[in-house]
Structures are given as structure tokens and as C-alpha cells.
Amino acid sequence: MFSFFKSKKDPAEPTPESTAESVSLADKVRHGLSRTRQNLGKQLSGLFGGGKIDEALYEELETILLTADTGVNATNRLLEDLRKQVKRDGLSDAAQLKKALQEALITMLAPLEQPLDMTKEKPFVIMITGVNGVGKTTSIGKLAKYFQSEGKSVLLAAGDTFRAAAREQLIVWGERNNIAVIAPENDPNNRNDPAAVIFDAVNAAKARNIDVVLADTAGRLTTQLHLMEEIKKVKRVIAKAMPDAPHEVLLVLDANTGQNAVAQVKAFDEALGVTGLVLTKLDGTAKGGVIAAIATQHVENPPALRFLGVGEGVDDLRPFDAREFVEAIFD
User: Fold this and answer.
1) Residue pair 30/281 in contact by the 8 Å Cβ criterion
2) 136-184: per-residue pLDDT in tens?
3) In degrees rounded to 5, what are phi and psi of residue 145?
């Protein structure tokens, strides 16, 4: 029923870093967030160019933040923090607010900065989910490359048995990175059980002493309740293959969806207990403020923002760093 795909190519030999590869992570993030910086950053720089701090300034700042998809809750909190700091520190010039806003944003986003701890379980099983079209399968390929660069062995599970091209896409990613893929036999009628595919992959990883299993699942809308029930089943079956697994449930979000991303976090968290997020396509949006909206939607227990997608390259999926992100969107 299932096939084990592995590239026949020899593992790539290490090569000297190219100029592109030697670019710092901060520069990659800054380049990937150029559209947000051109929109949000330039507007803020204009606003903070000088002049007095008054209600008109606060109103204009509110408009800028809302149009960047920062969200009402995050915008109100940022404005409240700024007003307090202006009063506490006796600020009077608009130019002084730029640094204050940066620090307020960093403080707001810092709880999302939670790197993965993969030291306690082997294999470390990561279940990846999300709605259709967010870049889920591509993110899996990039995650595989990232974990390889960390010296970890990886196995891919082609658990999206509903989308015709998903299996083939994952096999291609496996070939590119010299990674094994557990996939169902090609069935045009889509009768393969995704839970069974991933169950088989976890057992294969245990037998082969693999460090990380990346399990793809079928994309689904949050309103498709019957499909949400199916993905709950996938999670239960993974636990049968390995107690306490999956060790991470990663929800992939498309930054272009704006405030709808917040609703997706809520729906998938209720169904699966989301432990981490991957925010893709930040290079394609001018509204990177959605991260602040996510942070303030879950104030008591914010989800960990594990990775940002800041470009189309295989190395353009980067761990989230709050300060690095905020500094990248300001001129």
C-alpha cells in the first residue's frame, strides 16, 4: 500500500558558501520584508519625522497600524503603551516615538519567540496542517532542508492523500534533499488513508533511527467540519505509533490572508492543539502586522511562531526573532 522513496543521488558534497549563502539571517529577513517596510516602515518614518505629539498623531498612527493588518487589539495595546511612555518619560517630539514603538512591538512579539526543543524525543514527530494554498508542502521541503542543516536526519510522510499533486511534490522535495519519503501508492480515486500513511512513516523512522518526521496532511477549510474530524483522527493514530506524538503540531499560515489568519489559528488550535506556527509569503505582502494580531489574540498562552517564510529560496524559511523582525520593517 505504501512506498518508500529515496533519492539515488549521492549526498551533496560540502561546497564553499556562495555570496548569496553568506548573506546574514538578518539581511535575509530584511530583504524578505521589503514590501512591508516600504508600506508600514515608510509611513511610520514620515509620521515620526518631527513635530509635536498630539491626538492627531495618535489617530494617524492608529490608521497606519490598522491598514498593516495589525488588528484592533494589537493597535489599541500599542497606542496605550506609547501614551504611558510619553507621560512617564516626558516625551514631546514625534521623532522620539519611533524607538518607543519599536520597543513596544518587540515586547508584544517576544512571547511568540520560542525555538523548537527537539532534544527529548527521537524521532521528533511534527504534524503539519493548514488550509489549502498556504504553501504547506513547500514549507515542509524547506523545513527538511533547515533540519538537515542542523545535522538532523529527516523522513517525510506524504499524508496529503487528497490533493493529486501533493504526493509528487513531496517526493520531489525528498529527491532534492536526499531524504526518504513514505508515500501511498498512486491512487487516482484517493482511497488512501492519510492516518495509515503517517503511522507507517513514524514506525519506519523508529526502525531507521531517524531524528525528525515531517508529516504532511491534507489542506482543509476551517468550516469543513467533517474534514477537521478526519485530521483529529490522524493525530490520534500518530499517538498509537508513538506515545506523546506528534510532539509538534505546526500550523502553516499565509501572511497575505491578514486577519483571517487569526481565525485559522483559533479553529485549528481548538481541533488539534496547535503548538507552533509557520508564517509564509511575508515577502509577498505589505501587511506584516498580522504577527501582532496573532500575538494579542492569545495573550495568556500565545502560540509559538517557529518560522517565517521570507522568500522563495529553499533557505528562506527562518526561525522567528522578534527584534530582528521589528528592526527589519523600520527604515
Assistant:
1) no
2) 888 999 999 999 999 999 999 988 877 767 778 888 888 888 899 988 7
3) -65, -40
CA–CA separation, 301 and 173 (whole Å): 34
**219 carries a ligand binding annotation:** yes
* 218 labelled binding-site residue: yes
Tell me the average pLDDT of the chain.
83
Q: Is 220 annotated as a binding residue?
A: yes
87 is in an annotated binding site: no
Would you call 193 exposed, middle or buried from its count of C-beta atoms within 10 A (0-12, 13-18, 19+)?
middle
Kindly state the helix (H) or strand (E) to which residue 90 belongs, with its residue range: none
Is 223 flagged in the annotation as binding?
no
**236 assigned ligand-binding residue:** no
Beta-ladder partners of 280: 254
Considering the chain, what percentage of its residues have pLDDT values greater than 90? 37
- Is 131 known as a binding-site position? yes
Four-residue CA torsion sign, 248, 254, 258, 263:
negative
| Domains of the chain (ranges, CATH numbers) | 25-112 (1.20.120.140), 124-321 (3.40.50.300)
Residue 137 is labelled as binding a ligand? yes
Q: Are 129 and 272 in contact (CB under 8 A)?
A: yes
Distance in Å from the first CA to the final CA of the chain: 55
- Has 63 been labeled as part of a binding site? no
Residue 282 marked in a binding site: yes
Task: Report long-range pairs for 7-16 (Cβ below 8 Å, ≥24 apart).
Answer: 7/174, 7/175, 7/176, 7/177, 7/178, 7/179, 9/175, 9/178, 10/178, 11/178, 12/178
35 is in an annotated binding site: no
Mean pLDDT, residues 14-28 taken together: 48
Q: Answer yes or no: is 241 a known binding residue.
A: no
Question: Which pLDDT score is estimated for 12?
Answer: 37
Torsion sign (Cα): 251, 255, 256, 259: positive
Which cell is 65 given? Answer: 497600524
Q: Given pLDDT bands bounded at 50, 70 and 90, which one contains residue 45?
A: confident
Q: Would the annotation count 133 as a binding residue?
A: yes
